[in-house]
Amino acid sequence: QSVLTQPPSVSGAPGQRVTISCTGSSSNIGAGLDVHWYQQLPGAAPKLLIFGNSNRPSGVPDRFSGSKSGTSASLAITGLQAEDEADYYCQSYDISLNSWVFGGGTKLTVL
Amino acid sequence: QITLRESGPTLVKPTETLRLTCTFSGFSLSTSGVAVGWIRQPPGKALEWVALIYWNDDKRYSPALRSRLTITKDTSKNQVVLTMTNMDPVDTATYHCAHSFKGGSGWAFDYWGQGTLVTVSS
């Protein structure tokens, strides 16, 4: 059971918009700790997609955006493309556990 | 250009000690504000943070694994070493090392090694 909760799967057709939620608690996201998002393509290492809730590293398309509110965060992907099919993970820090924590991951299927 | 590469045994027996080395380039672990972490991923499962070492030699460990872990750095060799004792089959996973930076109020992992699959089996 992950400290950060994500839906196991989401799907969308090419060109559509999908969102992936990441729900935490008052000891992590709700405590003001930032959320970061990673994309993991099949067989590859994770890639940083969003840091500090809503910032994109250089080279990440602006189709990817992040937001945070209260004890939750969201990753939005617009203009869905076949190459977006991957696993997505949120990550934060938990002050009660004194530990970096990841969500359980969400598998995105492009229909 | 930042790169990281993990090396170590691919197969260990239960109760043995695992020693993994992360060799990196493109940054120095003596530079303020830099850290290197280890993250593992059992086959078909989620990412799990394991350990992290800061530029100032401060160290952090997963609470669930703390008693079994040691992380060290050798800045002259650009290496970070993770040692995990008393290995068990549940520790079978791909172990990644990653460069970490302070992105906002928290630390994110922006460059990752490809990972090394460690299987624990007799």
Write the layout of secondary structure elements.
The complex is a heterodimer of chains A (111) and B (122).
Chain A: E1 9-12, E2 18-23, E3 36-40, E4 47-50, E5 64-69, E6 72-77, E7 86-94, E8 99-102, E9 106-110
Parallel strand pairs in A: 1-9
Antiparallel strand pairs in A: 2-6, 3-4, 3-7, 5-6, 7-8, 7-9
Chain B: E1 3-7, E2 11-12, E3 18-25, E4 35-41, E5 48-54, E6 59-61, E7 69-74, E8 79-84, E9 93-103, E10 106-112, E11 116-120
What does this structure look like?
Chain A is built from no helices and 9 strands. In chain A, strand 5 and strand 6 (72-77) form a beta hairpin. The N and C termini of chain A lie far apart (28 Å). Chain A is mainly beta and 111 residues long. The mean pLDDT of chain A is 97. Chain B is an all-beta fold and 122 residues long. Chain B is 0% helix and 55% strand. Chain B is built from no helices and 11 strands. Chain B has strands at 3-7, 11-12, 18-25, 35-41, 48-54, 59-61, 69-74, 79-84, 93-103, 106-112, 116-120. In chain B, strands 2, 4, 5, 6, 9, 10 and 11 form a 7-stranded mixed β-sheet that branches.
Give a quick precis of the structure.
The complex is a heterodimer of chains A (111) and B (122). With 111 residues, chain A is an all-beta fold.
Report the C-alpha radius of gyration of chain B, rounded: 14 Å
Low-confidence stretches of chain B: none
Q: How many helical stretches of chain A?
A: 0
What structural class is derived from the secondary structure elements of chain B? mainly beta
The number of E-state strands of chain A comes to 9
- Secondary structural class of chain A: mainly beta
Largest Cβ-defined interface: A-B, 30 and 24 residues
The rough form of chain A would be described as: globular
Intertermini distance of chain B = 40 Å
Strand content of chain B: over 45%
What about the largest sheet of chain B? 7 strands, mixed
Question: Which terms summarize this structure?
Answer:
heterodimer; A: 111 residues; mainly beta; six-stranded mixed beta sheet; three-stranded antiparallel beta sheet; 0% helix; B: 122 residues; seven-stranded mixed beta sheet; four-stranded antiparallel beta sheet; globular
